[in-house]
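Q: Here's a chain of 95 amino acids. Please give me its 3D structure as tokens.
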Amino acid sequence: DSLVHATIIKPHPDMKYSEMGMTVWFWGVLCIKAIDENSIFYNSILKETDHIISVNDINCDKMKPEAFAHCLDELPLEINIVVRRGKQRWYGGFN
């Protein structure tokens, strides 16, 4: 597995999670479910199915999607997300 760190800057400080174009869900761990094409996360290194480890140094191990949305709503401008990306078993590449 590999850890990936992404920093995303909000276009305006009062931007809400619902406007950011990313959906997360809890499947044993907090995961990125979808990233919309018009999302602020679309051109970042983040991918669907990444496991979210932390957001701005807040541990996301047991965090629910609603709590994650609340965190992103409260952050002023800079969003730092650390994710774990699994390695593909057959050919060794990263998903």
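Q: Can you summarize the key feature?
A: The radius of gyration is 13 Å.
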